[in-house]
Amino acid sequence: MKKKLLVISGSSGVGKGTVLKEVLKTRNDIKYSISCTTRNPREGEVHGQHYFFLSKDDFMNDVKKGNFLEWAEFSGNFYGTNRELVQKMLNDGFNVSLEIETDGAMQVKKKVPDCTMIFIAPPSIEELERRLRGRNTETEEAIQKRLKMVKIELERSKNYDYIVINDEVSKAAAKILEIIDA
Ligand code: 5GP
Q1: Ligand 1 centre from 60 Cα, in Å?
Q2: pTM (2 decimals)?
Q3: I want to staple 119 with a disulfide (CB 3.0 to 4.6 A). Which of 69, 96, 160, 180 is the partner?
């Protein structure tokens, strides 16, 4: 069977990382694509595990060489998906999940029209703001920037194949597994 490319997006703080972890825990046929970013590592984040942390120069060099399947600027930093790494995982027989923001997701949809696009939405914007602040990892300015993006991203969720509301992690994960197996 042809391997699937899953594109998963959702507003910052919606808990998409947690939901995706739950999904991946139960499935060894799905590999997580590790992105490149120019943002600084948060406490506990490991190069090559959570992200490949690159300098702006290195990132832009990769852009010039066409090494990214997609890339975008988000909240003042660059993020991108390495094309070769994704291709290798697909060639090795795995389904691949990309956890990326909406601009990059649209780029993937254009290049790989049969990808499955899933948007994870918060139960409400108020709940999202509470979660974002509870994370305690961002400055107020960064939080404000991310909240502005929330509205734009919710608007773009119309372009997705599926919208999953994350009111409970296990339920959202189960819904995503259902979609993958559909
Ligand atoms: P964070 O800084 O919170 O880890 O990620 C910020 C946003 O960038 C999130 O919406 C995340 O999904 C997105 N992101 C992470 N990796 C990539 C990527 O490779 N490409 C794009 N376009 N977005 C990404």
Answers
A1: 16
A2: 0.91
A3: 160
Atom of ligand 1 minimally distant from the CA of 17: 12
Atom of ligand 1 nearest to the CA of 104: 22
Q: Which amino acid belongs to residue 144?
A: Q
Q: Count CB atoms within 10 A of the CB of residue 160.
A: 22
Half-sphere exposure of 121 (CA within 13 A, CB side): 17
5-181 carries CATH number 3.40.50.2000: no
All structural domains of the chain with their residue ranges: 5-181
Q: One digit per residue, pLDDT tens: the chain, 182 residues?
A: 688 999 999 977 788 999 999 999 999 999 999 999 999 999 999 999 999 999 999 999 999 999 999 999 998 999 999 999 999 999 999 999 999 999 999 999 999 999 999 999 988 888 888 888 887 778 889 888 888 888 888 899 999 999 999 999 999 999 999 999 88
Placement of tokens 């999953």 in the chain: 164
